[in-house]
Amino acid sequence: MKTKVAYWTCQVAGWGGYSAIGAFSVARQVGWQFSLVAGYLLFFLYSIALTDLFRREIRRRQWLTAPSGRMYARVFGAAAVVGAIQTFLVISISWLFDRANSAFLHPSAALAAWLGITGITILWTIFYVALTGPRRFREKEIHLQLALREAELRALEAQMNPHFLFNCLNSIRGLVVENPAVAQDMITRLANILRYNLRRDLMHTVPLESEVEVVGDYLALESVRLEDRLRVQIDIDPEAGRVPIPPMFLQTLVENALKHGIAKLPAGGDLLIRAVLKPGALVVEVENPGQLAEATPEATQLGLANVRQRLRILYGDRASLQLKNRDGRVAATVVIPRVA
Description:
The chain is of the alpha+beta class.
């Protein structure tokens, strides 16, 4: 809004000042006449209209994003055309008001008028390019930051896939000969997980309920290996299930809980997955038996570091991942802001 106000203020002040100076200069020689006032008033109006149309074309054709040489050639060439149109209108209106005594009927006078008006239009163009330069720089900077953010997020998502795939294939390998039917079921579940991963939302988020489904397939894969050592409890608030979250992040927390907690215990343990809605945020918790060493509450294993980085890129400091000891268990708690 401020930019528009500044633009129209400059338009009115610039062309108004130029028209007033011209009118006063001519009036000192021939006196104030209706044709003089009307002519400069019309010049003021159509100059604003033409240069605004010129500005819109510059933006629509994106001339200012071209290399410098090409940009100046296009912009100044178009400014000369706009100046020619203004001059034609000046001569035409002058002829309509006073056909016999129009000062612009002589070729040299018409040429002088075109050079003067074109010069002013080129000055207008230079002013516009200079005035919008900082804004264009900011837009390019923002575009570059978004591109880097997108590239970093894609790299983090791709980084997770080989890590996850290796763990699943390692679980299946031991059953291919020992129990082909179970191995076949595991491969089907792995295919479901990979299909889900390939169909991720382009906005890098999926509903929590979709993530819970794929986690169910992952836990089915792991239950074959861990058997009755793995006991799962899932408590997801139905409303929380519709909240968008980063894909594969819940699976990463579950994988971390199994790898560093339950799988290391001879008796295994209970894996708890909870999700509740709180004012303005979704809270997801994954608990497993075990004890987090004092020196590593912020351990940067590949999976957890990946989740932290993705949360930072998507939500900034509004999201968090904490790993804490809780009554003989380890709890991973993720807080994700709800986006309206």
